[in-house]
Hints:
The protein is mostly helical. The chain has one domain: Arc Repressor Mutant, subunit A (Orthogonal Bundle), CATH 1.10.10. It contains 6 helices and 2 strands; from the N terminus they run H-E-H-H-E-H-H-H. The longest helix has 9 residues. The relative contact order is 0.20. The structure holds a DNA duplex.
Amino acid sequence: MLGVYQRIYTLVMGVPRGKVATYGQIAKLAGCSARQAGYAMAVAPTDTVPWHRVINSRGQISIRSDGLIDAEQQRLLDNEGIQFDSKGRVDLIRFQWQGPDQSWWADQMLDPPLI
DNA sequence: TAAATGACTAACA
DNA sequence: GTGTTAGCCATTT
């Protein structure tokens, strides 16, 4: 079933290596709530969507409902040059993705959010 | 058809 | 800094 999630995945695939996005940021771009962004990552096709580049608004990796911190996510980000402070937080000022430009939306055949 | 479920967030105390 | 609360809404059951 194709839904808003497909739009979310397309957006996340636009996040470049070495940058991160927040759930709220993706949600705003996709035109849905932050919860949807979170749930979309939970069921994302991990082979095509860089799910690890999506973190929460505090710059931290979110803990999943099973209570486990996803260590692989931090490893993948570290591999891309994302730096974590002593409390496991990413400096969003330095590493947050600034969002797609106008031509990107056209390339993806999507409409920008109304905001 | 109705209820439950979240990898969330902003705004408070 | 730490809670708590309300809002969120597509998807799943």
